[in-house]
Design brief:
337 residues; alpha/beta; 14 helices; 12 strands; 40% helix; binds guanosine-5'-monophosphate; binds manganese (II) ion
Length: 337
């Protein structure tokens, strides 16, 4: 964080009593880890603070400290709207455009509060008093660590805060293996472990809590895997019916796209999931090397993210979305070869 932002942040924090922290729709480990870490830190600073997330988050994150106090906008609109209206300061974490909060976009854009953004996605919108944006950092959780450090409060990071930050760094780096994992990331992780967290237990909580149905759904996903060898692309589709056959829960398909990316020679991987409730297809894209799925998703699927991990949506049917994807790919033959 730049020194001028540091000063501004201190002033904003001093003049704010009621603080709301929010993240993007479909919260993942980094979104929940970072909002809870910041929440715990601000509570220690005697602030009146509330985490509000647009919709529910996966069961494998529900062990996180204080996660039971998270307010879910979808099912608590009145209470959440009142808190947003009443806030002096709103932190937006792990996203950089208000439409990424879905229905929360409306109350957020009407709010009187000042905004602080902490985020690592590309092309941030300009809505915040303080925009702490750094696309080179692996996770918003690592940025929250640097944020607390910049405010001179590194010593307030206790095991609860450290567990939250560790979780988001772990999930956003694919357990410390993506390119975004730097020596600084490992130094931060070392400091977090030194607070006394049970890091092995965190891995277990997040990765070893599969239901039988989830593994069967993974089996179905792998059966549906298709490869386009000449374009080094692999993709998976899951219809609404296939998901309901295995009683799919939030987060059950998290990480499945990585199996497609793990195939030999694959540079681009995707998963297309039919979401009947919202009448759309949710797409997750992953790549290796320089092929930017952020640019690809922005150009064709109304989405965005990072160079090697992005998401998007399609309002077409599942079949038409797959046809569209397959028909676009040849124009990227050079980049994918
Ligand atoms: P995932 O595929 O795991 O849902 O998301 C991969 C990355 O892309 C994450 O950093 C996520 O925040 C971002 N992302 C996912 N879906 C969307 C979307 O619809 N729009 C934008 N702008 N980013 C997305
Ligand atoms: Mn993130």
């Amino acid at each position: 964080m730049e020194p001028k932002d540091n000063k501004k942040t201190k002033i904003l924090l001093q003049s704010s009593d009621n603080i709301v922290i929010t993240c993007h729709k479909g919260p993942d480990g980094d979104a929940i880890g970072s909002t809870l870490a910041l929440y715990l830190y601000l509570k220690k600073q005697q602030k009146n603070v509330q985490v509000i997330v647009p919709d529910d988050f996966p069961l494998f994150l529900k062990w996180l400290p204080e996660s039971e106090h998270i307010l879910i906008y979808d099912t608590n609109k009145q209470q959440a709207d009142a808190l947003i209206n009443n806030a002096d300061l709103i932190f937006t974490l792990d996203f950089n455009a208000l439409h990424r909060t879905g229905e929360m976009q409306e109350p957020l854009s009407k709010a009187n509060a000042k905004f602080i953004m902490i985020d690592h996605h590309q092309q941030p919108d300009d809505y915040a008093e303080v925009t702490y944006s750094d696309t080179s950092i692996c996770s918003t959780c690592q940025m929250v660590y640097h944020f607390i450090d910049a405010l001179g409060d590194i010593n307030t990071i206790d095991t609860d805060i450290a567990s939250c930050i560790y979780t988001g760094i772990m999930t956003d780096t694919g357990s410390f293996r993506f390119r975004s994992t730097t020596s600084t990331t490992h130094r931060v992780i070392a400091n977090l472990i030194d607070t006394g967290i049970d890091n092995a237990k965190i891995h277990q909580n997040v990765y070893d809590s599969n239901s039988y149905n989830r593994l069967q759904l993974l089996g179905k996903s792998l059966t549906n895997l298709k490869v386009i060898p000449e374009l080094n692309t692999a993709y998976i589709s899951l219809s609404a019916e296939e998901q309901s056959n295995f009683n799919a829960q939030k987060g059950d398909t998290e990480g499945v796209v990585n199996y497609a990316l793990s195939l030999q020679n694959i540079k681009l991987a995707a998963i297309f999931k039919e979401d009947q409730n919202n009448g759309l297809i949710k797409i997750s894209l992953r790549s290796k090397g320089d092929f930017s799925v952020n640019e690809f998703s922005r150009a064709h699927f109304n989405g965005g993210g990072h160079t090697n991990a992005a998401g998007g949506v399609s309002k077409l049917s599942l079949k038409d979305t797959l046809d569209k994807f397959i028909s676009i790919l040849p124009s990227y033959k050079k980049e994918l070869s």
